[in-house]
What does this fold into?
Amino acid sequence: MDRALIDTLAAAKADHQPVVVVTDLADGGKSLIENGVGIGEIAIDEEILAASAEALRNDKSRTLDAADGRRLFLHVFNPPLRLFVIGAVHIAQSLAPISALMGYDVTVIDPRTSFATADRFPGVKLTHEWPDEALTDLKPDARSAIVTLTHDPKLDDPALHSALNSECFYIGCLGSQRTHALRVKRLQQAEFSNVQIDRIHGPVGLNIGAKSPPEIAISIMAEITSRLRRSAG
Amino acid sequence: MAADAESLMISSEEVMRQAASWKDAGKGVAIATVVTTWGSSPRPVGSQLIVSDLQEMLGSVSGGCIEGAVVTEAQDVISTGVPKLLDFSIADDDARAVGLACGGKVEVFVERLT
It folds into this structure.
């Protein structure tokens, strides 16, 4: 393994860039796959690309017995999973610990300082910035999920504008069908395309009949998990 | 076991940073990576242990049962530059002896940092 690869991996991590290091277990030859492109000593074909994409999605490194007989190791380097919650409301108090258990680095964003307090969110990262400013700083990436819970367009909409302009894998908005229809109308007026707006899951969460805040939190995390783990289509 | 408990807490980035700094200091360095596991093995696929030619080590590829063997094999890899794929079956008795509830099988790839 080349010493320079360590710096490359550190840089990818700093950029929140997912990468796979492919190693030939016969001779130690290596290639790096980034953005679906392989660079290095091992020729990267469709089979390896597909297996690498799946390994990234599952966040699980694995060996691959390639069709040409080579035995390869696909080492996954994923940026951390992050969850950004807009609104330090009751559901957020359940969402924060449940998502943390699932391995998410969670940040609750709410400029209303009486909501986002350490008393209500012990041990949780809180920011009192306006949602769009907070998200500009936090730079959501392809391993980030964003959930808005405030019901207040003044807070939810700026967050949605940032979310729709990011690569985040999940956007969910709390609110009824009717609330969501109004939200869609506002986003259309703000010149977001229907393809962009269709990324939003609203009403938020899988329909499991959730009533209490912890149940709603579980339905949201179930939907996020489904988006994360299932391949597109 | 205190040292093992500590090394389990070290992030993979810290382990790699240490490998780079050993290398930059002129030491021979080998990197050992868990590539497959069967049954219950204490460290997941992708876990890494680094070894220097002064027998220093950081990180882990098991809960402590195979690190000794990996360090020995790593010296060979550092001097020859030829990577090795090591196959360990962690016998139930050995596992119990080191206080692990594993009894699994682990493949570890050891390569020189160049």
In short: The first strand of chain B starts at residue 29 and ends at 38. Chain B touches chain A through 20 residues (CB under 8 Å). Helices of chain B lie at 2-9, 12-24, 67-80, 92-97. DSSP finds four helices and five strands in chain B.
